[in-house]
């Protein structure tokens, strides 16, 4: 059980196994659509999980059977918050306020990617707009057979601005597919998502997908936390830098990691045919 308190409106944070946290979006009557407080809360949650020594892996899922999330609650956004603000006196000042607003939302969702712990996303049902933003931040994506994906923003007169257009081109997906779904806002489904590599696996039901995610999380959590977190950090760094930069970065990181007791414990457990137990960070 994690030592910190995780009590956030519209989210359930539980600990289904040692060193594994599960974050569940919880607004199912509204298809888990996001209002302002939800953006703020998910940022807080993942920043807290990132430094919690009792957490090594995070599963991201959502309550209900109908949707992972329908994305932004457009009605709520039009009635309150930055999009409804009419106080700015000219376009430049209003644009400045909107840029700050977008930046805050980007930072809250980017907290998923910046989380030091691996994040496994389990998508089901309606998975529109923000669902893509959030789960392109995740390290591993699984989905159910009934999933319905859409980069929905052009249908509401916007270009996706919380991460989808930046992260999808770095996800090793075909550029033609990326432009197809982003320009048209068409739905795409589990089979196509698996074919292009947007998800790693498709499962019959949400229950089965969560069971598989938990098994994957337990396996990752059994590894040395320094090694796992260094691996995530270097993969993400190397995605955005040259091969030479990536090699230099892992050299620096492992100069520290090689001095941990984890390496000795891993080697000895292999020789002694036992399962290693690694210390908390």
TrEMBL record:
Q: Where in the cell is it found?
A: Peroxisome
A single GO BP annotation from the record? fatty acid metabolic process
Which keywords does the record carry?
A: Acetylation, Fatty acid metabolism, Isomerase, Lipid metabolism, Peroxisome, Virulence
Q: Which InterPro entries match?
A: ClpP/crotonase-like_dom_sf, Ech1-like, Enoyl-CoA_hydra/iso, Enoyl-CoA_hydra_C
Q: Cross-referenced CDD domains, in alphabetical order? A: crotonase-like
User: What is its pathway?
Assistant: Lipid metabolism; fatty acid beta-oxidation
Recall the GO molecular function terms of this protein's record: delta(3,5)-delta(2,4)-dienoyl-CoA isomerase activity
Q: What name does UniProt use for this protein?
A: Enoyl-CoA hydratase
């Amino acid at each position: 059980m994690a030592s910190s308190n995780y009590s956030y409106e519209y989210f359930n944070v539980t600990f289904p196994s040692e060193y594994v946290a599960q974050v569940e979006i919880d607004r199912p009557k509204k298809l888990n659509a996001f209002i302002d407080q939800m953006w703020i809360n998910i940022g807080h949650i993942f920043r807290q999980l990132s430094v919690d020594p009792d957490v090594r892996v995070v599963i991201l899922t959502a309550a209900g059977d109908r949707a992972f999330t329908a994305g932004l609650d457009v009605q709520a956004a039009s009635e309150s918050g930055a999009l409804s603000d009419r106080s700015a006196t000219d376009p430049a000042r209003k644009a400045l306020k909107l840029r700050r607003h977008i930046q805050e939302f980007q930072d809250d969702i980017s907290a998923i990617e910046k989380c030091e712990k691996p994040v496994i996303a389990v998508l089901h049902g309606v998975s529109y707009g923000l669902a893509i933003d959030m789960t392109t931040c995740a390290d591993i994506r699984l989905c159910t057979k009934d999933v319905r994906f859409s980069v929905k923003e052009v249908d509401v007169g916007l270009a996706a601005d919380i991460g989808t257009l930046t992260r999808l081109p770095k996800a090793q997906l075909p550029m033609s597919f990326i432009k197809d779904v982003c320009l048209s806002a068409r739905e795409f489904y589990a089979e196509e998502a698996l074919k292009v590599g947007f998800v790693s696996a498709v499962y019959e039901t949400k229950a089965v997908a969560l069971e598989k995610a938990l098994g994957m999380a337990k396996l990752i959590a059994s590894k040395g936390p320094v090694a796992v977190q260094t691996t995530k950090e270097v993969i993400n760094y190397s995605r955005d830098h040259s091969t030479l930069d990536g090699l230099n970065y892992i050299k620096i990181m492992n100069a520290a990691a090689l001095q941990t007791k984890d390496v000795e414990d891993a080697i000895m457990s292999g020789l002694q045919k036992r399962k290693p137990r690694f210390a908390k960070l």
